[in-house]
Specification:
The protein is α/β, with parallel strands linked by helices. Helix content is about 45%, strand content about 10%. The protein has a domain of about 110 residues: 3-Layer(aba) Sandwich (Rossmann fold). It is built from ten helices and ten strands. The strands form four sheets. The chain has a four-stranded parallel β-sheet with strand order 2-1-3-4, with helices on both faces. Strands 5-6 form a two-stranded antiparallel ribbon. Strands 7-8 form a two-stranded parallel ribbon. Strand 1, helix 2 and strand 2 form a beta-alpha-beta unit. It binds zinc ion. The site of zinc ion has 6 residues, from loops. Zinc ion (ZN) binds next to loops.
Amino acid sequence: MLKKILLIIFTITILSCEAQNTETVIITTTSPLALILKEIAGTQIKVDYIVPASASPHTYSSKPSDVNKISKATAFFYIGKDVDSWASKYNSKNPIAMLMMIEPQFLVDRTTNNYLEINDSLKKDAKINWNIIDGHFWTDPILIQALVPKLVDTLSKIDPKNAQTYSENGKAFINKLTTLDRQISVMVKNIKNKPIYLHHPSFLYLINRYGLTFGGSIQRNPGQELTPKQLSELIATIKADSVKAIFNEPQLSSEEVNAIASATGISVYVLDPLGADAKNYYDFIMNNVKKIIEALD
Ligand SMILES: [Zn+2]
């Protein structure tokens, strides 16, 4: 009898341990979303992304293994529009569009390259035309800071037993972002009026946050190449602007950037909007800011 009771207790203990060890897994479309969520998730949640460091999320075509990963994951975080609009077609237990969590005053309008105009009708109906919103929100540390409490809440709902940890990690991340913001504000003082020419408009959130100057971009959308006329116009603008450098991106073809560089004699630097090699969000943003300063100062 005692043996039987012990066996039952043993079995119950094993089963409850197994239940507790069921891993919480978050899948994101791109690496920056994973870097942001890892700051709050810490070691409690496994966070992984699907678009490789060398691929553009705009033109990414998913593999059968992605479908499997997403359907098994506890939650699937994606941008929602513009950059990874393909993500919404997946079957996920818990799909979360991060762009839709952002307050309108932080959003950048793709048609003006500036902050979204908050007019009376937007205030009244809070109806945002998502088709004009730039999706590269992750390059603005202050926007991310404002988003942290919502992300803490979301992770706490996904995994309530570790809510306290997520809250503490969120506070630590907010402090790191304050430091990052202060450092960038000082670092960019001398380059505010120097136009930044991008391969595609991937850093407009960073540019707008720190009052930098956007010169233009080679591609409005990745994959959409310039016509020869547009290319020669861009070369003329770059010459007229006395631009020192142009930025390439690891995910895009360097053909047009090199053509512009050889026609104008300017240098080519690389900015990485996905930062898959960065060890955390701070390093990801800082590496890119340092690169912009190195190129333009
Ligand atoms: Zn992009």
